[in-house]
Design brief:
By secondary structure, this protein is mainly α. It has 16 helices and no strands.
Length: about 475
């Protein structure tokens, strides 16, 4: 008896337009998923910058020296913070890829190791933060400004452990796509920051002495401890999110090495970027307190719009990580393209706003006519680099979701330090542009980095698809 095989069913012809239509629908769905994740992250990022804005606005009436001291102290502290917190960000690709692969236990193991890493990094970061006065003097700042920088950063040092631990817990939640709880906690922190700033700057009779500009630093430290307590409380009260269920608490060298191998280049990359802007602040201080104050106001405006682009890019990193972990190559493509579309489009609109009403925007922070005049000129320069700023952060985060962090680190080293810093110095101090030339140097740096990262995204996600990097060590 023989068996007759039925002929294979003919493949159904699908016109090219049908494939394109299906791709368009999937891209639309990816944009929607990105926005769902990005919304709370953007609000969280704006909440963070809102705290800096609150500090600037509430310290502003104390005078140019207070504004310059707090502005420079905040810039120096952030330059240190981003390096150490960037290393903790090495958790992000591991959590998102593990979640995409359906491995919740790996997510929890990554968190535990991330908390150990955050605690270890708190020690050197706090020590560096305590050296604020010496750093300001070494950077050539005026004596009064340097003294205030030292006192302000000493207050911030007590808030180092909670900010790094909060970062680790936030990576755990956001890596699994749960972005709303960190948003809510950040908004609570923003409200506490307003009240704490008023109390510590101006004092509360019989309770808190008036600390002036330094009080803003103590307010920030208080807010960081409150936010950490709120985050821990939330995680412990939600059973399915309990971070310590079924995992051991001891440090694991293999997982820590994997995390640091991804996170250290992120920290270095962020350090190159923030140090570029911090050194720009230092250069503005060489011109005088007026120029530094105008720079502080203007950079705060530009940072506010950047937070929207950064938040959306972080959502892109999560989506790329989910797709890579699940082995969905085309999904990773759509996530990267969607990230570029949303971020660059938004930053372009911000550029138009900066060009349209620069005086009105700067006037929201101060009534000093000289600061408004100079700040408006700087804001016109900020409009030039908005699209490039969006392009570079979209590229960085898309690559981060694929755990590609070393080459982007080298790109930022080239663009920010080898191109940006020399350009800012030469244009600022060896041309008639003065302070505006410093900002033009920033534009050049961001343009170089944005273009090179776009090329890298093409190489990693299209030509040589990234493989998942998920720690599988047994619990």
């Amino acid at each position: 008896m023989s068996t007759v095989l039925a002929p294979a069913a003919p493949r159904r012809f699908r016109p090219p337009t049908v494939g394109r239509r299906r791709g368009g629908v999937l891209f639309f769905h990816e944009l929607r998923a990105l926005l769902m994740i990005a919304g709370p992250i953007v609000v969280s990022q704006l909440g963070q910058i809102g705290m800096n804005t609150t500090d600037t606005v509430m310290v502003g009436p104390l005078g140019a020296v207070a504004l310059a001291g707090v502005g420079l102290g905040s810039s120096l502290h952030m330059a240190v913070l981003v390096v150490f917190s960037g290393t903790v960000l090495g958790m992000g690709p591991l959590v998102s890829q593990a979640f995409g692969a359906g491995d919740r236990e790996a997510c929890r193991r990554t968190l535990v190791q991330g908390l150990w890493l955050a605690l270890a990094l708190s020690v050197p970061m706090a020590w560096i933060t305590l050296e604020g006065h010496a750093l300001a003097l070494a950077l050539g700042q005026e004596a009064a400004v340097a003294a205030l920088v030292g006192e302000y950063m000493a207050a911030l040092a007590w808030g180092v452990p909670p900010v790094l631990l909060f970062m680790a817990l936030r990576q755990y939640l956001e890596g699994m796509g749960r972005t709303t709880p960190p948003m809510v906690i950040t908004l609570v922190g923003l409200a506490v920051n307003v009240a704490a700033n008023y109390a510590f700057i101006h004092g509360v009779e019989g309770w808190i002495p008036a600390l002036g500009a330094v009080g803003s630093g103590w307010a920030t430290t208080l807010v960081r401890w409150v936010m950490l307590a709120a985050m821990l409380g939330y995680l412990l009260l939600v059973p399915e999110l309990h971070p310590f269920r079924g995992v051991r608490w001891r440090p694991r060298a293999r997982e820590l090495r994997t995390m640091v191998g991804i996170g250290a280049p992120i920290g270095a990359q962020l350090g190159f970027e923030v140090s570029l802007f911090s050194l720009a602040a230092v250069m503005m201080g060489w011109f005088g307190a007026l120029e530094l104050g105008a720079h502080q106001v203007t950079i705060n405006i530009a940072a506010t719009t950047f937070m929207v682009g950064l938040g959306t890019s972080l959502a892109g990193s999560i989506r790329v990580g989910h797709h890579v972990g699940a082995g969905r190559r085309r999904g990773a493509h759509r996530a990267a393209l969607g990230t570029y579309t949303l971020v660059v489009g938004f930053m372009g609109l911000c550029a138009l706003l900066f060009l349209s009403v620069p005086e009105a925007l700067v006037g929201l922070y101060t009534r000093d006519p000289e600061i408004i005049r100079l700040g408006s000129s700087l804001l016109l320069m900020a409009a030039l680099f908005q699209v490039f700023d969006g392009g570079q952060v979209a590229g960085l985060c898309s690559l981060r979701g694929a755990a590609d962090t070393r080459v982007p680190m080298l790109v930022t080293l080239l663009g920010y330090w080898l191109v940006g810093i020399p350009a800012a110095y030469l244009l600022g101090f060896h041309t008639p542009l003065g302070p505006v030339g410093v900002w033009l140097g920033l534009c050049v740096a961001l343009a170089v980095v944005a273009v090179l990262l776009a090329i890298r995204v093409r190489q990693v996600l299209w030509r040589h698809p990234a493989a998942a990097v998920v720690s599988r060590q047994a619990a």
